[in-house]
Here is the input.
Amino acid sequence: MTGPTTDPIAGDEELTPAELEAGRLLFAQECRFIAGAVGLDHMPSGGLPEVAFAGRSNVGKSSLVNALTNRKTLARTSNTPGRTQQINLFDLGGRLVLADLPGYGYAKVSKAQSAAWSRFITDYLRGRPELKRCLVLVDSRHGLKPTDIQVMDLLDESAVNYQVVLTKADKQTGKGLAAVKGSVAEAIAKRVAAHPDIAVTSADKGTGIPELRAVLARLAQPA
Here is the structure.
């Protein structure tokens, strides 16, 4: 089969075998930790295209980064929501930077801490010229929450291209997954900065991982 293909579960974009292979090759490259930034003054400016991973605490950001790069411990995972308190940056083969952002929406952190994270992330999203796309991760079991809407509002206002990625698809039923995907599609339909394709993934089962790699490879610096 040589023509474009789509997977109704993994995503709606047409991807050619060549694009899937380009994604596989990119994410097979060395991926190294380059910085853990707690403020904009700590952010490196290497000039490489950057993709950010944002989402509610415990939505599976670190697990998705690990699955994409086919590593188990590249990004730390934790069962304690709110543990990640910095932006962790990874250089992928000298072609793309992956930015794992602090989780949002966890009520048990202090108000001062939550406000500080919010300011930092807001400044990052608005003032990072290297940022090519922000992946907004949403738990497929729960759908969009008010905090997700707030982040999408910020991204729209900041003219930052973003794409919704449903996580933990293996923990949802087929009908439930379709319903959540449909509700998200309706919610983003008129948003100016939203990418129309919704990726559906499972870090545990590998669902949607090859397709998401291919999509991100389009944003990387050419080999």
About this structure: Helices lie at 17-27, 61-68, 111-127, 146-157, 174-188, 209-217. The longest helix spans residues 111-127. The mean pLDDT is 86. Residues 33 and 90 are 4 Å apart (CA to CA).
